[in-house]
Amino acid sequence: MRYHFKIHKESRGYWAECVELIGCFTQADTKQELYDNMQEALNLYIQEPEDSKLLVPLPKKYVRGKNIESVPVDPEVAFGFMVRYHRLKNKMTQKQAAKKLGVTNIYSYQRLEKKCNARLDMVAKLKELFPDFSVDFVFS
Hints:
Elements: E1 2-10, E2 13-18, E3 25-28, H1 31-46, E4 68-72, H2 75-89, H3 94-101, H4 106-112, H5 120-129, H6 136-139
Antiparallel strand pairs: 1-2, 1-4, 2-3
Helix pairs in contact: 3-4
């Protein structure tokens, strides 16, 4: 999963704004530091609180333009984001999703929506609950 940042040069460094996510900004003194900061800002932005009902938009496939950089989301963050995205898209609460997945502890379910590395049996259950759920999107 990759989002796109537009990079701006200032007299004393750089700043960048995410094209798809309003309010996702970062800055740095050097370009290398800026690249690191863009990924950190992106990961923090899409890791919404577990009770959030905000459906963050998916990244665009291609964004072209001057000074546009494609920034990857950490795969574990992207996986949790996609679980939350599909739950919200299907108008389910965390409690409803946990029950349908056979997860008895709500905190265990909430970990799925955070930075996580799910087991294959859970991925299969997610695919059954949300047929359009795909791990391919996480790694693209």
